[in-house]
Write a structure and sequence with these properties.
440 residues; mainly beta; six-stranded antiparallel barrel; 13% helix
Length: 440
Amino acid sequence: MTKRQERKYRKFLWALLLMGVSALLCNIYFSYWQKIPSKIKIRAGVEQEFDFRVPVSGEIYRTAEEVAAVSSVTDVDEEAEQVLSGGETAESIHVNFAHTVRLKANEVDTYQMDLKLFGVLPYKNVDVEVIQDKMLIPSGLPIGIYVKTDGVLVVGIGEFENSEGNTISPARYVLQKGDYILKCNGETVENKKQFISMVESSEGEDLILTIRRNNEVTDVMVSPGANQMQEWKLGIWIRDNAQGIGTMTYEGTDNSFGALGHGINDVDTSILMNLEEGTLYKTEIVGITRGANGTPGELTGYIEYDSDNVIGEITENTAEGIFGVCDNELIENAAFDPVPIALKQEIELGPAQIICSVSGEPEFYDVEIVEVDLEHENVNRGIVIRVVDEKLLMLTGGIIQGMSGSPIIQNGKLAGAVTHVLVNDSTKGYGIFIEEMLTH
């Protein structure tokens, strides 16, 4: 090997070493990134322990100008306990998550933590929210759901033949799948039957449609076309409501409720449906399709859409679930007493339970929490559970559709709700942290 070749070979080896070290450092950095969530909630007036055990430290403060009202922060190692800073006159308080940190704040408020990895590398800014403790009634009841959209939802753009035999699509390049049609020529669109009538009576005149697209409202103009039956059409598929069954997660003593643990998405567009109004109904489970690996199972319910069966009003449809107000009767006949909530940093790997009504009444079933991701990019997948209860496995094969919203209980606290089944393993499912549902 010549000296020139030897130099090239050494450069190549150094480049490989540098890439390997860089990859290792990136891997370490992003593994630490997942350890501390970007948002942390703590209870007012209660000292809480954080055992993240990552080499991250920094300052906690309200703002640079305002005084921090955190009463104390304690950094605990195996040798000693040392109060680093305290009192209500501190502008900021130092925290070191390489050790266990105990944090206490006396009043409801919000703070920031500016953290650095190894005390040097920028890590992340963490929002700290001090909340009042909450007691909720875990439910597990099956619920019938009916929601009406705000306007009509465009679920597809089609085409048809006109009277001359030409294929046309009047709405193409004007409307999009996922648009909500709110008004037609200034008149509010209440439902799809009304909108179809508006189009058919247009006589082909241009229509000014007020639409919501990606949360922005705008006006567009579209010209209907006549089909071979001389009926005026736009060539779109629309929907104005959705129905289904799910599971109630909790009821509040103030008659509030939360359910599903995920939003109601349109089946064709997969877009979260904009809600005008929604209703909860009593429902009865009449059939169970057991889940198997690769084939999710399903609960079949019977819903009678009658005013006598109404048990609540849905006011919000969000990515974290559906929320609203339930009837007094539901609170009075609750099967369980109120329990405290578990904040995400309090949830542990190991035994837990879920509550669901697959056998007719709400019951506890044993599960294991096998994964907790404090910083998952999908808010509905922070928890992974595995069903270990033999009775539930026999009835359902694990987690099945319709169980979304089933409360997850650990150490006597409401930790979250079931959201999805793992298609390739029906014994496992995802869950959402209860604190995420309580943002509404």
